[in-house]
Design brief:
It is a single chain. With 320 residues, the chain is of the alpha/beta class. The chain has ten helices and nine strands. It has a nine-stranded mixed beta sheet with strand order 3-2-4-5-1-6-9-8-7, with helices on both faces. Helix 1 crosses helix 10. The two termini are 14 Å apart.
Length: 320
């Protein structure tokens, strides 16, 4: 069944709302980079971070503030609204412990998962939750503004053996889903699917694109999908994965608009998948241009996690 989306939230170095993100992207506005991060020689690094969080703020605090901001913009009707949280494993324990932070603030975090594709599993859980609750929030957050992450990126920045990695970034997204299908809505989630690939970020197995191809097939794609958002140009693994899967679905995806969302903002980690889905919904919601005569205003948002999980969702505006 389709999931009704009542509200969406998106925060990153590019903007503080879904509307700002789509229009700033169209206007080719650069994400915020304060110049606070430098090499030992004083060279300013293109590290993108949210301007409303001080560059010196500890990583654990950044994660919590990002989650709080996105959740507030999703505007749940009650503090008891179930929250399905997606965050890096390090943020689900220790000093950061986003779930505990939200719980102490009176919210109800009912599940936790990690990875960019984790939001798809959260959508499946949301469908089950909505059978007994009037609304549920899927919340994803991550920050790579962390000294170890920045140092690893710097080591590979000009590597002769691999594609230059995206600079570290941060962000959060939220999607408030409701049981009622009555307008006004921010959009709909028509279908979603997830699969496991043997190729992961930490092994040398080449991807055959089979898992992502199966995911696209399971979505029951429309004859023409006019918008696709995902990490199609982030790194060699994701580039090849998408090339293989999209070629096998060329008739449906070949003419789509494919904005480079994460490529513009930087590495978004576990938040990337839901952030892409919310960005796609905002694009449709505001009527931004789509290629050709689009019969249905729908978009494909896909993601790949570090552990090889691939997932995608077919989303649409309230008219789809």
């Amino acid at each position: 069944m389709a999931l009704s989306v009542a509200e969406i939230a998106l925060v990153s170095p590019l903007g503080s709302s879904p509307s700002e993100h789509v229009f700033f992207h169209r206007a080719e506005v650069n994400p915020h980079a304060s110049g606070a991060f430098t090499t030992r020689d004083g060279e300013a690094l293109p590290v993108h971070h949210c301007p409303w969080i001080a560059a010196s703020r500890p990583w654990s605090s950044r994660i919590r503030l990002l989650a709080k901001q996105a959740l507030a913009r999703a505007a749940p009707g009650s503090r008891k609204t179930p929250i399905l949280l997606v965050a890096p494993r390090e943020a689900l324990e220790g000093e950061a412990d986003v779930a505990r932070f939200l719980t102490l603030a009176g919210h109800a975090v009912v599940s936790q998962r990690s990875g960019a594709a984790g939001y798809v599993r959260a959508l499946k859980e949301a469908e089950d939750v909505l059978r007994q609750d009037p609304e549920v929030v899927v919340l994803a957050v991550d920050s790579r503004i962390h000294r170890p992450d920045i140092e690893r990126w710097l080591e590979l920045r000009y590597s002769a053996f691999t594609r230059n990695p995206l600079p570290p970034s941060e962000g959060a997204a939220a999607m408030r889903l409701v049981a009622s299908a009555q307008a006004p809505l921010a959009g709909k989630v028509h279908s979603y699917a997830v699969a496991e690939s043997e190729a992961r970020d930490d092994n040398d197995l080449p991807t055959d694109g089979a898992a992502l191809t199966r995911v696209f097939a399971a979505l029951r794609l429309r004859p023409t999908v006019p918008l696709v958002v995902g990490p199609r140009d982030v790194d060699p693994l994701r580039i090849r994965d998408f090339h293989l899967a999209s070629v096998r679905h060329h008739a449906r995806l070949g003419r789509a608009e494919m904005p480079s969302f994460e490529g513009q903002i930087g590495a978004l980690g576990s938040a990337a998948g839901l952030m892409s889905a919310v960005f796609a919904l905002a694009w449709l919601r505001h009527g931004l241009p789509l290629p050709g005569p689009a019969r249905e205003r729908v978009a494909l948002a896909w993601a790949r996690s570090h552990d090889g999980t691939v997932g995608a969702a077919l989303v649409g505006d309230e008219r789809s």
